[in-house]
Design the sequence.
């Protein structure tokens, strides 16, 4: 049983995000990157499966992605059995708003998975910088494999994956899918485990990450970015001024006027 | 063309919003509004806003099943060749749109909050980075796909009733050799309380930082005598049960007052609470998208504000 977990970093949304001068992209100079939160959930779900049935978990990322070494070493420290960096050959990967475009990302991963097939491919349901769709269904379509997104639990029963797929309002479906299958995880059955820094250091000292080169097919014609801009937030909310005590007074006043605070 | 979503024999509000938008675009381009209705041809009567309903029935389509829906939609797209396929940006859109983009060879825009025709070009406005950046993208060529955020467009025009032609298509033969089957449907868990009926909600997001800090917002909710709800990251971290989650994958709420603490306002969250009568938002980032829907806002740190609120509410 082999589980491959594609992972990538996304811009940290806590930091200020600056657009480039011609407003067609995000200025990378001001960005810091963190592992995508859904990829973190996907790795946890894969490790839970490993704990339960003894699967081999392989974390993979693209060599050109920011912070990818750190992400893959952390995955090893959490319990992944191997980590692989994939480099593209033959063509330059096309750039999306904040990194490699989803079509090229999926094509490179598909190239890798054709050579090193997996029973389960488990990735985050989406990434914060997705613009032209999400990775798992794109990958499923390229490999002609069944795929399920917005999964909140993945288990294995013989040659099938049992996947719980969630819908709005808390409704969900339990699906039985013949493996191999590509799954997009919304949340793992438990919160992602923590990797102690000493174990990350151990993983780094154990040697460099495996790197594989995959040829990149010609990109499909995708959506074309015309302009990036910020949402209109000014002029909507009336901003309350003053220190915490003054703001609290105004909020309590608003609640009192609606009878939600007595007195 | 719009993909109809339906649960329990009811076509979703989002479907009507998409039909209304499809009408507007079709009138500019000079075309028809078609709706793909899978598994429940008997619901065509609810789709009076469409010019044509393309219905496909098969036992595998009675509930949403990713593989069966994808294969059937590909057949519908091949036969009807629409300029644009519109889907809701929920589970079904996240599941199918990227795969259809590959298999139908059409450019895709996701998290779409605006759509227009600009000198013949199809332009979608998509939200990325948790709604902090909007991107205007062109969907070039003769076909395209957009997954649209709930509430982005009005639904009224999509609910009108007119002369709708119903076209029945045969299901594709692949549906009889599935790689995927539905084992069980889980209805939402009633849980400890129903946040969607609360008069006021104190709602907490990623800004609360850790489980230990939950105590201070619990104290505020207690003082006000209202339930505590949360955005998805707090629920995924296991700090509150799923029944308290507001947003696209949680519950849609419409309380008289929604107090958002440390919630940035990702599009999925806004979809669940933007219709609250009064929204008060506290976030240290003045550029947070939550201020785009809030009536009152403050950038005071929630860790300073909440204890003050508790003190004043308790008198």
Sequence:
């Amino acid at each position: 049983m082999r589980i491959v977990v594609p992972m990538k970093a996304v811009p940290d949304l806590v930091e200020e995000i600056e657009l480039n001068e011609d407003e067609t992209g995000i200025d990378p100079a001001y960005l810091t990157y963190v592992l995508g939160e859904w990829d973190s959930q996907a790795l946890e779900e894969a490790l839970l499966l490993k704990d339960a049935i003894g699967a081999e978990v392989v974390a993979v990322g693209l060599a050109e992605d920011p912070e990818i070494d750190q992400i893959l070493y952390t995955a090893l420290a959490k319990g992944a059995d191997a980590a692989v960096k994939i480099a593209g050959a033959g063509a330059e990967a096309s750039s999306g708003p904040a990194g490699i475009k989803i079509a090229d990302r999926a094509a490179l991963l598909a190239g890798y998975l054709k050579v090193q097939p997996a029973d389960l491919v488990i990735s985050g349901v989406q990434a914060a910088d997705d613009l032209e769709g999400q990775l798992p269904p794109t990958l499923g379509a390229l490999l002609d494999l069944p795929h399920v997104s917005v999964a909140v639990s993945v288990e294995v029963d013989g040659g099938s994956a049992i996947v719980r797929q969630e819908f709005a309002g808390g409704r969900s479906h339990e699906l039985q899918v013949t493996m191999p299958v590509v799954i997009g995880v919304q949340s793992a059955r438990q919160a992602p485990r923590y990797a102690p820094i000493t174990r990350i250091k151990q993983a780094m000292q154990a040697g460099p990450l495996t790197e594989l080169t995959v040829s990149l097919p010609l990109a499909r014609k995708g959506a074309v970015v015309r302009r990036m801009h910020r949402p209109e937030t000014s002029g909507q909310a009336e901003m309350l001024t003053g220190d915490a005590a003054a703001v609290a007074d105004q909020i309590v006043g608003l609640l009192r006027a609606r009878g939600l605070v007595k007195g | 063309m719009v993909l109809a979503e339906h649960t329990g024999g009811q076509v979703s509000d989002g479907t009507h919003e998409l039909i209304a938008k499809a009408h507007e675009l079709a009138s500019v381009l000079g075309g028809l509004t078609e709706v793909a209705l899978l598994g429940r041809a008997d619901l065509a009567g609810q789709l009076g806003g469409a010019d044509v309903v393309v219905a496909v029935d098969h036992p595998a389509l009675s509930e949403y099943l990713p593989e069966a829906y994808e294969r059937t939609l590909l057949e519908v797209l091949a036969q009807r060749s629409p300029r644009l396929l519109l889907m809701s940006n929920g589970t079904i859109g996240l599941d199918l749109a990227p795969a259809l983009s590959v298999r139908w060879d059409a450019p895709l825009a996701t998290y779409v909050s605006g759509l227009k025709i600009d000198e013949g070009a199809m332009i979608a406005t998509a939200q990325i980075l948790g709604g902090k950046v909007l991107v205007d993208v062109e969907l070039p060529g003769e076909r395209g796909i957009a997954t649209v955020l709930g509430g982005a467009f009005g639904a009224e025009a999509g609910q009108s009733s007119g002369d709708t032609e119903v076209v029945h298509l045969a299901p594709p033969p692949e549906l009889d050799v599935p790689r995927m089957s539905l084992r069980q449907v889980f209805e939402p868990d009633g849980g400890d309380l129903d946040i969607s009926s609360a008069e006021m909600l104190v709602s907490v997001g990623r800004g609360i930082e850790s489980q230990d800090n939950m105590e201070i917002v619990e104290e505020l909710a207690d003082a006000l005598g209202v339930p505590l709800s949360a955005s998805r990251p707090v629920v995924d971290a296991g700090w509150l049960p799923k029944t308290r989650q507001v947003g696209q994958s949680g519950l849609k709420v419409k309380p008289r007052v929604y107090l958002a603490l440390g919630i940035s306002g990702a599009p999925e969250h806004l979809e669940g609470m933007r219709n609250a009568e009064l929204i008060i938002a506290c976030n240290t980032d003045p550029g947070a998208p939550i201020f785009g829907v809030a009536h009152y806002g403050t950038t005071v740190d929630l860790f300073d504000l909440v204890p003050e609120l508790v003190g004043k509410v308790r008198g």
